[in-house]
Task: inverse folding
């Protein structure tokens, strides 16, 4: 129960923060990305506010062997800068620039954002499932090759 | 820079950072939205906290709405563009292992070389996309 409560609290803070920051509005995000237009640097201030506080959490965690409500800290295992990372980031960037939506603000406005956000989230889930499907085919093929 | 909101954006950013710190200290998890959502598609054993986080994420804006009213939201993209954007964001974030939150906030806070690379790439790709659609094509 406790990991669910802390997860809920973290989600509430995230959704509230996205709204306060203005990043819930795709037009504001596009205003940051449009550096040659009527540039709005606000998104950089969101990152400037978020990163030090998140880093402080990381520093506090270093003194602990395990998180308060789970068995272990689950840090990303990959360290190599590889093609999937770069290709994925580029594809994501193009999609982000087309609509002004990244996953956080889209989900945060899902309940009240109307048809556009519903369309975007449905397509985003389809994109995630497509990746999942291709990844499953790839890993089963790799497994077959190894056993052959 | 008519819509520039440095104070609100910094405060909102700090709340997002607090969320990331809380999820790391309590659950030992990275607050990456695409990872939390995408990880659910295989229905893992730890689905509970993921669903709880996403419920909180969707309910969180109502705190801000109750405090200061409905936020301005303008979506200029049409349905076809939104579908293409969604497919690219969904596929790209899973392939690249993160989005604005996982790489852009949590990864940069951890000084992860992978996240720094990904963040530079997706901001550059998004910037070029906006330039092409708004200015080069005359949007």
Result:
């Amino acid at each position: 129960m406790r990991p669910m409560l802390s997860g809920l609290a973290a989600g509430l803070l995230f959704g509230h923060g996205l709204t306060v920051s203005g990043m819930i509005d795709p037009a504001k995000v596009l205003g940051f990305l449009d550096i040659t237009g009527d540039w709005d640097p606000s998104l950089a201030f969101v990152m400037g506010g978020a990163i030090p506080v998140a880093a402080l959490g990381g520093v506090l965690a270093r003194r602990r062997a395990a998180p308060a409500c789970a068995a272990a800290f689950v840090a990303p295992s990959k360290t190599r800068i590889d093609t999937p990372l770069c290709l994925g980031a580029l594809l994501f960037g193009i999609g982000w620039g087309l609509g002004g939506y990244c996953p956080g603000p889209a989900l945060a406005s899902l309940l009240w954002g109307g048809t556009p956000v519903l369309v975007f989230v449905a397509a985003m889930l389809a994109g995630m499932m497509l990746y999942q499907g291709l990844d499953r085919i790839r890993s089963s093929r790799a497994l077959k090759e190894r056993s052959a | 820079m008519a819509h520039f909101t440095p104070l609100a954006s910094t405060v909102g950013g700090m709340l997002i950072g607090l969320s990331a710190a809380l999820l790391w200290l309590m659950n030992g998890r990275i607050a990456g939205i695409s990872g939390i959502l995408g990880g659910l598609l295989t229905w893992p054993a730890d689905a509970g906290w993921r669903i709880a986080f996403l419920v909180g994420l969707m309910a969180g804006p109502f705190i801000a709405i109750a405090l200061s009213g409905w936020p301005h939201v303008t979506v200029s993209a049409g349905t076809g563009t939104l579908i293409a954007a969604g497919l690219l964001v969904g596929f790209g974030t899973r392939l690249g292992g993160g989005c604005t939150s996982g790489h852009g906030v949590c990864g940069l806070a951890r000084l992860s070389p992978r996240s720094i690379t990904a963040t530079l790439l997706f901001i550059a790709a998004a910037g070029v996309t906006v330039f092409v659609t708004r200015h080069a094509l005359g949007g």
Q: What stands out?
A: The mean pLDDT of chain B is 95. Chain B touches chain A through 110 residues (CB under 8 Å). The two ends of chain B are 20 Å apart (CA to CA). DSSP finds seven helices and no strands in chain B.
